[in-house]
Amino acid sequence: MRSDLAVVSQWVQPGARVLDLGCGDGALLAYLQQQRQVQGYGLELNPDKLQQCLGHGVNVIQRDLNAGLDDFRNQSFDVVILSQALQVVEAPDALLRDMLRVGRQGIVTFPNFGHWSTRLGLLLNGRMPRTRSLPAHWYDTQNIHLCTLKDFEALCAEEGFAIVRRAVTDANHQHNAGARIWPNLRAEVGLYLLEGAGE
Length: 199
Hints:
The protein has 199 residues and is α/β, with parallel strands linked by helices. 34% of the residues lie in helices and 23% in strands.
């Protein structure tokens, strides 16, 4: 399992009800079911990944995250996870509000556009940077709302979301000391545990 998902799994309490948004092949939910005895569902749009979820024994619903979470009751999950998908949705702020309406806590991970390599690439080359965590060209990327750790934390403050925990990694999802000291400059991936304004 990717080490960022290992961090995410440590933030989920045993026996929790979990909703995994954009769950991919269902590997994280399958791991949480086996190791943390969670119950939950994944939401995924890609038909091939839906089949992989079923192969992993994960309950999955085909759904476009841009449609929101109106079908889910308030506080119906303990944790709602959005791993590496914040930047691909049309309205990330609305989805975050929905996550923290549906779940008591939210876990969000995303690539940090403030990493030194993206800054340097843009400064020196004058072109949209391509990095290990953001390898696609500007014209063929699914990423439509890139942000930095500071941008994300500012949005959390504006929305009244409490940042309960934060972890940072490099593109290989490994921790390093530099990223802890200068996270917005040195971290390639940010991981956040959030609670809503009402918590």
